[in-house]
Write a structure and sequence with these properties.
The protein is α+β, with helices and mostly antiparallel strands. The chain folds into three domains: 11-200, no CATH class; 231-426, Alpha-Beta Plaits (2-Layer Sandwich), CATH 3.30.70.1230; 429-469, no CATH class. Helices cover 55% and strands 20% of the residues. Strands 3, 4, 5, 6, 7, 8, 9 and 10 form an eight-stranded mixed sheet that branches. A two-stranded antiparallel sheet has the order 1-2. Helix 3 crosses helix 4 (107-148) and helix 4 crosses helix 5 (158-208). The chain crosses the membrane at residues 32-50, 56-73, 94-117, 129-151, 158-179.
């Protein structure tokens, strides 16, 4: 008469080597068990003459009805009805109320039927279905009692009481067992899902080391498909390499050279990511970065961010040179940089089983050419880049160059500095001579650091004065 616990799935296979079984009791089996228990109660009542003998037809109904309702809910148009399981259980509750009336409100058998119905409602549909089932059962019980009347005695014989309690107990225990097994399996599935999620996160973070963070994020959030496709976009392209690296590689051991290069790439990458650049690749001692894809703040802002990154890289190299000197590296390593802005083809290039997210086009060639023409510590930009940043960054005209792929000579400019940092109000100072190097950015210095720096400068000044005397 009652339904079984909510069926989730027969099995969850989260890992092909570790299937997680979820064995809830099917609706059909649960209903057969409930109606069999109710039939046992009614049969005992008939045997002990608790109810009239003409109610033998109920036993046949209890045997046939589970199969009928299974057919209706699975084989007919009713299977498309929303919440069909709850509706069928509500019908069972209505039948339970009618049965209570037929029993004449005999106490223990009636209570056994009520407990069985209410337990099923709570398991399957929660409080809402329990309330609805209670209303239906009460209504049909009142109608049935009003039509047939009550029994002569509300007390039942001992055998009827024992069978009623046992039948309801068996149904509740079996249903609770399957509910417990289902909850246990779901907890195992949840644990396995959590473990696989943690493994996937760890793996994705490892894979992210081979991709620019912007590209990795766009792939893992579903914003970008991993397939061979490209598009035309206006980008700002940056190239840099280290002047003097070839000579240094001949002087240093490979292990020390590798450590130095990795340190350099790590520091420059932090600067690039700070300004939102997409790191394309490292080739030897060269770095290629572009701005404007996968995300863009507009051509003007992208160009300004690219040049701002280059300026900070140039300043940061002064700090790194001081550190390298303290490690015994005397070769004065400096970077040279080139930047161009224009339309390029960006996207996934390669084969279906091996792709590279990069850019191609004449603007890429121009940026590479500007980098090769730049002097140590110099940043050269194309006219397109200059036109986008000239209101914020001071540049110097460097004439024109001829570049393959361009029909006319290309005007180029040298980046001097931010306009806001020019003049007496600039926030930084830098001096570098043999035996002396200083880089000062007052905007980044705390009060505590300011005191220590002043003491160090005064001590250095006193020592220089003493040696002069």
């Amino acid at each position: 008469m009652m339904n079984a616990p909510l069926k989730v799935a027969k099995s969850l296979t989260l890992d092909s080597s570790k299937p997680v079984a979820v064995p809830p009791m099917p609706d059909y089996n649960g209903r057969v068990l409930a109606y069999t228990a109710t039939a046992a109660i009614v049969a005992t009542c008939l045997y002990q003459s608790v109810v009239p003998n003409y109610m033998y037809w109920l036993l046949a109904g209890f045997v046939i009805w589970p199969h009928i309702i299974h057919y209706l809910s699975r084989r007919t148009i009713l299977r498309k009805s929303p919440r069909i399981r709850q509706k069928m259980l509500a019908m069972d509750c209505a039948f339970a109320g009618g049965l209570i009336g037929l029993l004449g409100l005999v106490a223990i058998p009636s209570v056994a039927v009520i407990i069985t119905a209410m337990f099923s409602c709570l398991i399957v549909g929660g409080i809402r279905l329990w309330l609805a089932g209670t209303v239906l059962m009460t209504t049909t019980a009142i109608i049935s009692v009003a039509t047939l009347g009550t029994a002569d005695s509300f007390q039942s014989p001992l055998l009827t009481s024992v069978v009623s309690v046992a039948a309801a107990g068996v149904y509740i225990c079996v249903t609770a067992y399957y509910a417990h097994q289902q909850a246990r399996s779901l907890m195992q599935a949840k644990t396995q899902i959590q473990n696989q999620r943690e493994q996937s996160i760890a793996l994705s973070h490892k894979l992210s080391k081979y991709l620019s963070p912007q590209v990795w994020q766009s792939i893992f959030t579903g914003e970008r498909d991993v397939r061979l496709e490209t598009q035309r976009k206006k980008l700002s392209i940056f190239f840099s390499d280290i002047k003097g690296f070839t000579e240094l590689s001949e002087e240093m051991e490979p292990e020390a050279l590798t450590e130095l290069l990795n340190h350099y790439f790590n520091e420059m990458s932090e600067v690039a990511l700070k300004y939102g650049g997409t790191i394309d690749k490292f080739v030897g001692d060269s770095i290629m970065v572009f701005f404007g894809d996968p995300t863009s703040r507009g051509s003007r802002e992208d160009a300004f961010a690219c040049v701002s990154m280059a300026v900070e890289m140039r300043k940061h190299m002064k700090i790194m040179r001081q550190k390298w000197r303290s490690q015994g590296i005397k070769t004065p390593l400096e970077i040279r940089m080139g930047i161009s802005t224009g339309y390029t083809t960006v996207g996934n290039f390669g084969a279906e089983n091996r792709m590279d997210y990069t850019i191609i086009g004449k603007e890429v060639n121009l940026a590479s050419r500007l980098e090769s023409l730049a002097e140590p510590g110099e940043i050269l930009v194309s006219y397109e880049t200059f036109s986008l940043i000239k209101d914020k960054i001071m540049c110097r005209d460097k004439g024109e160059i001829t570049v393959k792929g361009f029909g006319r000579p290309v005007p180029i400019y040298e980046v001097v500095d931010f306009r806001r940092d020019m003049g007496p109000n600039r926030s930084f100072m830098e001096h570098e001579h043999s035996g002396f190097a200083m880089y000062l950015d007052s905007d980044k210095i705390t009060e505590k650091e300011r005191t220590c720096i002043l003491a160090a400068l005064e001590d250095a000044a006193d020592r220089l004065r003493q040696e002069e005397v």
